[in-house]
């Protein structure tokens, strides 16, 4: 419940007071107060309203005690009110979605926009945001502090952008929503492989965005990608909660309704102009949902994706697809070419993929070394158990 309400509290308080630090502090204080009072008084009938009232009172008390702080916030609020155009009911029906756009302000560096959104509005931890951007946790912590200082120093107003501003800010919003989904679909740490709360929240926001901007093909592509990927969630773990690879999954457990919803969206995303990255990834996900899997077409689509968004993670996934098309030796050669890529060094998926291909080639000692390297990096318990099972198999 706290995860669900935290985003709403932050969004509403930032809109009201125009200060992210204040909103974050009083949100935390309200949750702390709930942890103290609710075990004694019982959970209120409207927990979200209780938290909002408590947080708002804490903010007002703080402003009354600090007149300088109050004057500065009042100025920010007046500026925001003057800059914000009138918004009809239903234009942006979720305050968190409004702030997704707000935090994609062009005055902020591109990387800082997404990081700020993920940390403070989506509720991801600093470590989870760092994983999404393939950077050390310390680097991400500094980036978040810098982004908040930029908002304060440049007096960036927390407001809904005008309609003509939306397309320029859309890529950052899409990246933020997809990063939330990625962490939800494959949690970077913890006892569960899937964090359903994050994945389903990202899907909810993507549906809202698609309703608002139905003509934006990349919005359609992102929604399709998430539907076609999340459709496999029930088959991704076994009875013991361990990871099940795609090729070993029980396809009868896949969510056929989600697949049926997502497939027509792929066609829409790829029609009417050059493809975008989310549309291409949605097409790859659609091919994974077919049987037999068309690996030559998947490799071709990864080539297209590389031309649109070059990335070591794209290269890694393409190498795995090549291994499925041409054999593990061909894929291993491509993975070895990525060995010096610094952005892959902290990710367990790289040595795990190498270990799997080495295992299939019968090079057991090298495979065991790669799996042990992956074990040192992995944070998810189901993925850890999968790697340990692979080592057990290699040891007979």
TrEMBL record:
The keyword Transferase does not apply. GO terms for biological process: DNA-templated transcription initiation. GO terms for molecular function: DNA binding; sigma factor activity. Keywords: Sigma factor, Transcription, Transcription regulation. InterPro entries: DUF6596 (IPR046531), RNA_pol_sigma-70_dom (IPR014284), RNA_pol_sigma70_r2 (IPR007627), RNA_pol_sigma70_r4_t2 (IPR013249), RNA_pol_sigma_r2 (IPR013325), RNA_pol_sigma_r3/r4-like (IPR013324), WH-like_DNA-bd_sf (IPR036388). Pfam families: DUF6596 (PF20239), Sigma70_r2 (PF04542), Sigma70_r4_2 (PF08281). Residues 1-67 form the RNA polymerase sigma-70 region domain. Residues 169-268 form the DUF6596 domain. Residues 106-151 form the RNA polymerase sigma factor 70 region 4 type domain. Belongs to the sigma-70 factor family. ECF subfamily. This is RNA polymerase sigma factor. It comes from Herbidospora galbida. The lineage of its organism: Bacteria, Bacillati, Actinomycetota, Actinomycetes, Streptosporangiales.
